Amino acid sequence: MSPDGRDTPRVLVVHNRYRMRGGEERSVEDLVRLLRERGHAVDLLERRSDQLAGVSGKMRGGTGILGGGLAPGEVKSAVRELGAEIVHAHNTVPLLGPRALEAAHEAGAAVVLHLHNYRLFCAIGIAYRDSQPCTRCHGRWTWPGARLRCRGGTAESFTYAAGLALQQRRVLDAVDRFIVPSRGAERVLGEFGLPAGRAEIIPHFLPASAFADRSSAQEGKYALFTGRLTEEKGADTVIEAAKQAGVPLAIAGEGPDELRLRRLAAGGRGTQIRFLGRLGGADLAKARAGAAFALAPSRWHEPHPYAVAESMAAGLPVLASRMGGLPELVGPGSTLPPTDVGAWAEAMRDLWRSPDQRRHYGEAALARAHARFDEGRYYGRLIACYRRLLS
């Protein structure tokens, strides 16, 4: 309960939007909607990385990274104007930084930082390079990211490495509680140097409209991969596996690896592999409705991908990599080594040949989704976290 006796504390949500919309933007929007529907006074303060184009934009971003953020007075004013008791921050790089979190404290709010990835320690956020997970950087030791040019260019890589090293302690000192969406992600963050006992595990939620009435996986016509087409997502593994198993495959997504994946798929010799492009809303729901099962062959430690949660809520069995937060999402018996094409081909073949098994696993996935991704469950755990901070 907040200090003035209300059970619905006022919340300022703070986020630095990425250049491309992704799961974190969705998480922010869903959180604001949920809190407002539950009677909270909520404001959203956003900065935008897609406005940092050109030389002046890059210089502004670099200044934010190295200096710990820009214009923290905006955050302080927003806290006071709303009377916010909680500042719930998401991404803070490059324009918000620890100065925004410190300003929230100065204005009298408790600070929660939601860690959707590993950007507190890793310049690219996904802890992956050279075709495998990477934790070379540790704590404030970020030199590997600069030396290996993880941000692509030398100047940007050195700027990020220096900024993370300079500002990390300020972030840790300014945050009252971290929120992490899976225990797998908490484990990786611990390997990077997040102090033990600082994080609350709260899985993402889905709106009631995302849940199917029943599974129709037994009627599905193809296996479905949904995600950005990048190496760490592992789509090449399931393309090769689909060719071995003779299972039709639909790929929903776009990205820099698409040309290579199309070339790989072209050698299917009779196996139907279709690229659907990037789908959203009704089109993506339709693709899931026609699928027999979903695939999540990620090679990086994904904390909690929405694509997996939504597939389960649609009543689809999900085969996933034994990485990050995926095992706790999909449950025992549904995970595979991320790059073992033979194991993926065998699992895909078994599901494809058994409609009854798909129906059984699909219903189990739907039940698990209701138990784990329910909106009310998420809200209860989040408010319990808020109340502990305010008590």
Strand order of the largest sheet: 2-1-3-4-7-8
Looking at the structure, what is the overall shape?
Answer: globular
Average predicted confidence as pLDDT: 95
Coarse structural class: alpha/beta
Number of continuous helical runs: 15
Helical fraction equals 40-55%
Provide the low-confidence segments as ranges. none
Radius of gyration: 22 Å
First and last CA, distance? 7 Å
Please state roughly what percent of the residues sit in beta strands, choosing from under 5%, 5-15%, 15-25%, 25-35%, 35-45% or over 45%.
5-15%
Number of DSSP strands?
14
User: What is the oligomer described by this structure?
Assistant: single chain
H and E order: EHEHHEHEEEHHEHEEHEHEHEHEHEHHH
Main beta sheet strand tally, sense and closure: 6 strands, parallel
Indicate the topology.
Blueprint lengths: L10 E7 L5 H15 L4 E7 L5 H14 L4 H11 L3 E4 L7 H10 L3 E5 L13 E2 L2 E2 L9 H5 L6 H21 L2 E4 L2 H10 L6 E3 L21 E4 L8 H11 L3 E4 L5 H8 L7 E5 L3 H9 L3 E4 L9 H8 L4 E4 L4 H5 L4 E2 L4 H12 L2 H18 L2 H16 L1
Parallel strand pairs: 1-2, 1-3, 3-4, 4-7, 7-8, 9-10, 9-12, 10-11, 12-13, 13-14
Antiparallel strand pairs: 5-6
